[in-house]
Design brief:
Low-confidence stretches: none
Mean pLDDT: 92
Keywords: CBS domain
InterPro entries: CBS_dom, CBS_dom_sf, CBSX3_CBS_dom, Diverse_CBS-Domain
Domain CBS: 7-68, 76-133
Order of helices and strands: HEHEEHHEEH
Protein name: CBS domain-containing protein
Pfam family, one: CBS
Number of strands: 5
């Protein structure tokens, strides 16, 4: 199963924010949309960063709520690992495990296409395992 098949099922909607927006605006968007990360893009929809709940908690916990008025660009992760639509679920799991992150923007032609979360990956992997188990039961019952 590929990243594109996951996006085809879940949709391509991605919450984005500009690098000059404030951390306060980003936190409000995360809370309002009930999401764990927001992708930071430029005017051409190229990924320039990602900001997670963890990033927000860390910076506010260390520096205090005064940081809420800082630009997202001062807090975001700027070295973003991305996937393309042809990568497999296994490849995405490896990226997420190695990088210890829960959200992976999907890029095509240098532009943001969608986002995959660890929840999306787990859901699809469990469904795949259930299909394999069902096929195995069917095979055993038919012999």
């Amino acid at each position: 199963m590929t990243v594109r098949s996951i996006l085809d099922e879940k949709g391509y909607d991605v919450q984005t924010i500009g690098p000059d927006a404030t951390l306060r605006e980003a936190v409000e968007a995360l809370a309002d949309k009930r999401i764990g990360a927001i992708v930071v893009t430029d005017a051409e929809r190229r990924v320039v960063g990602i900001l997670s709940e963890r990033d927000c908690v860390r910076v506010i916990g260390l520096d205090g709520p005064g940081r809420l008025d800082d630009a997202v660009s001062t807090v975001m992760t700027s070295k973003v690992v991305t996937a393309d639509g042809n990568e497999t679920v296994h490849q995405v799991m490896e990226h997420m495990t190695a990088g210890r992150f829960r959200h992976l923007p999907v890029v095509q032609g240098g532009k943001l296409l969608g986002i995959i979360s660890i929840g999306d990956v787990v859901k699809h992997r469990l469904a795949e395992m259930e299909r394999e188990s069902h096929a195995m039961r069917e095979y055993i019952m038919s012999t």
